[in-house]
Each structure stands twice: as structure tokens, then as C-alpha cells.
């Protein structure tokens, strides 16, 4: 049985793959983040990842087990067949991935679906599609973690997207601890980050700051 979506899962959303933690063990990093209190984990293994498809599947099984033990949703990025093979709790797709309507039909209610929207036009279209659980919007600030990132949205742009969206929005892209409160003040349900957690020297403090910033959002 997969975990059902609720917007509080977006409060401290960790996105990470092997490419983001060179020289480290992704399982160890994710377990530390779970112990620190993340509310969602997205398995986004791509780009310079050196894993074979079978290795990616095997690692995904291990990561899902760790998330399940912590009652934290395990979300797969992009790859519908991998998400189904892992019985993931959710999948996240972007505007350049499989069409979200196709993904919704393919997963047929087996998992929740998140969609990337970085413009008002994309949000308006998403509002018309039944079944989308949440929206990921960004990059809010410049990022070095995604080579093909869209233009920077900024806090003012994010506020406009929140006002237009009928689904909860999680902000992503270049978010640092000093920006958590200004990001939360736009009305988003939370922040999704790679570097801020993956490179943290004090994960309990970092994740705690994410949770504190969104403490009174729900
Ligand atoms: C929570 C969240 N928001 C946005 C993204 C970006 O997705 P996408 O635009 O498909 O880009 P890639 O991550 O696939 O490079 C995300 N992954 N998660
Ligand atoms: C996956 C993704 N989508 C938009 S920006 C981004 C990268 C976020 O990484 P970081 O938190 O290190 O900027
Ligand atoms: Mg994608």
C-alpha cells in the first residue's frame, strides 16, 4: 500500500541522486536526512549518475525501504516505469517529460503525481487537469544542480504562481537556509532542495529550519 499525499509532505522535501553526492553513499545521506525529519524524498538519479538501470532499481528498492520505515513518501523523478517497478508513493514529472495526462493514466491511481510548472500559463493548464497532487515551481534562485533549468522565477514570480494555482506548490531551485522564510512567506507549502541538505554539515539544524519556516502554513 502506498502513502497517500497530503500537503504537509511538501514542507521539507529532499531531492537527491548519486550524482549529487559524489564520493558519498546515497543511502547513508538519505538515512541521515530521514533521521533529521525530512517530510518527502525524491529519487532523482540522472545526469552524471554512473548507475546502470539494474543498479538504479536495486538502490531504489533500498531507499524506498528506508523511507517506508520512516513513513516518508518515496517519490521517483521522471521515470514512470521505474516508479511502478519500485511501487513508489509518488512520481514527479516536468514539462519536458512524458505528458502528465499520460502519466496519470499509466499510474492509474497507484501513486500521486507532481508536476513542474514555472509559468502562469503552465499553472493554468495544470489547474484543468484532475489528479495532479502538487506543483513544483522553480528555479526560484540560480542553481548549479540542474544544467537545463528554466529561467529564474524569483520570489515575486513564485507569489504569482501560488495565487493562481489550485494545487499546493513546493518551491525548488537554489534555496538556502537564509531564504527559507522569504520562500515560505509566498504561501508555498514548502521547499524542495538538493544542495542545502546534501551538503549540510548539520542536517538536524538544516531540516529543522525547513520545518520551522513552514510551521504555521497548514
Ligand atoms: C519537487 C520538484 N520540482 C521540480 C522538479 C524538476 O522537475 P523537471 O522539470 O522534470 O526536471 P528534472 O528534475 O527532471 O531535471 C523536480 N524534479 N522536483
Ligand atoms: C531539480 C530542480 N528543478 C528545478 S531547480 C532544481 C535543482 C535544485 O537543486 P538545488 O536545491 O541544489 O538548487
Ligand atoms: Mg523531469
Descriptive tags:
TIM Barrel, binds magnesium ion, 218 residues, 37% helix, binds 4-methyl-5-hydroxyethylthiazole phosphate, 8-stranded parallel beta barrel, 8 strands
Provide structural commentary:
It comes from Lactiplantibacillus xiangfangensis. 2-[(2R,5Z)-2-carboxy-4-methylthiazol-5(2H)-ylidene]ethyl phosphate binds at residues 143-145, 174, 194-195. It is an enzyme of class 2 (transferase). 4-amino-2-methyl-5-(diphosphooxymethyl)pyrimidine binds at residues 42-46, 77, 116, 146. Keywords: Magnesium, Metal-binding, Thiamine biosynthesis, Transferase. This protein has 218 residues and is α/β, with parallel strands linked by helices. The chain has one domain: Alpha-Beta Barrel (TIM Barrel), CATH 3.20.20.70. The protein has 9 helices and 8 strands. The chain has helices at 26-36, 53-69, 80-85, 100-107, 120-127, 154-164, 180-184, 195-198, 203-213; strands at 12-16, 40-43, 74-77, 90-93, 112-116, 132-137, 169-172, 190-193. An 8-stranded parallel beta barrel has the order 1-2-3-4-5-6-7-8, surrounded by 6 helices. It is globular, with a radius of gyration of 16 Å. The mean pLDDT is 97. Bound molecules: the ligand Cc1ncc(COP(=O)(O)OP(=O)(O)O)c(N)n1, 4-methyl-5-hydroxyethylthiazole phosphate and magnesium ion.
